[in-house]
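Entry 0007
Protein: DUF4199 domain-containing protein
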Amino acid sequence: MYKYFSSAYKFGSIAGALSVIAFVALSFLYPDPTNLNLVFGYVISPIAIFLAIKFFKEYSNNGYLSFAEGMSLGFVTYMLEAILSLIGIWIVLQIHPNLFEQIKASKLDVLATSKDSIVSQVGLESYGMTLESVKNMVSLDIALNDGLWKIIPGLFFTIIISIILRRNPN
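Output (C-alpha cells):
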C-alpha cells in the first residue's frame, strides 16, 4: 500500500503546507487573502497531482500507470492537500481572530459596493440571503470553502493527468 501512495502523501502534504503558507503570506499583503489563495490552489494542485502520479509511475511502477492507479493517487494527493489546507487555515484564523474579522469586513464591503450589480443578476432575495450568510460566517466557513475549492479542481486535474500519463504494459 505504501508503494502506491508514498508519492501522493509527499506531494499532497507539500501542497497543503504551501497553501497554508500562501494564505498567511497573502494575509500580510491583502485584507482578504481568500480569493488569491484559491488562485494559488489552482496552480499548486495540478503540479502536486502531476508530480505524485509521475513519481509513482517512474520510480515505483516501472514506467506503467493504469487510469485507476492515476485516479487513486490523484485522489489521495488532492484530498490530503485539501484537508491540510482546511485545518491549517482554520487554525490560523483561530489564532488571529482579527484576520477573520478583516476578511469578513472585506467580503461585506464587496457585497455593499456591488449591490446593484448583484441584485440585477440574481435578485434582491438572493442578495439578502448572501448578505445574511456572510454576516453569520465563522472561521470554519472560510477554511471549508478553501478545502472544497481544492477538491473540485483536483478531481478535474486528476482525470486529465491520469489520462495523459496512462501507460499499460503491452
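Curator remark: DSSP finds seven helices and no strands in the chain. Residues 2-95+143-165 form one domain.
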